[in-house]
UniProtKB/TrEMBL annotation:
InterPro entries, sorted: DUF1579
Protein's name according to its UniProt entry: DUF1579 family protein
Stored Pfam families: DUF1579
Amino acid sequence: MDQIAKQHLNHFIGTWDTEGIILETNNAPAVKIKGTDTYCWILDNSFILHQANVMIGTSNSLTHEIIGYDVVRQHYSMQYYNNQGQSGFMNAILDNHLWTFTGTNLKFNGGFSKENNEFSGIWKQLTDHNSWNDFIHIKLTKR
C-alpha cells in the first residue's frame, strides 16, 4: 500500500463512539443512531477491517467492511456486508482533508477534526429524480 494512503487511513484506527440521526422525511420521522465503530489493520497492515455495531432506532445494525487502497486508480475501496444480508461497494477519495465515499445510491462528505479525535459528516441518498438529498448526519468520537 502507498505510504501516504496508509497514513491517511491510520487516522481511522481505533474504537469510536458513534451518534447520528437519519433525517425526517415526508414519509418517516427522524431516527437516532447510536453505537460503536472499530477500525483495525489486518493482513499485515494491507487493509482495514471496519466493524460497526449501532442501534438505528430500535434495530441493531451490524456491518463489516474491508477498506483498502487501489494504487492504480488512486482511490480507496470499501466493500461492506451487513446483518440484513446486504453488501455493497464504494469508492473513497481524500481531497484537501475532505473524505468523499461514493456508492450506487449513497454518498458521504466529511472529515476529521484537527485533533483527529472526531470524524463527522453527512450521508446523502440518491433520489428517483437523480438528485442527492441529505440523509444522515453522523459523528464518531474516538475513545
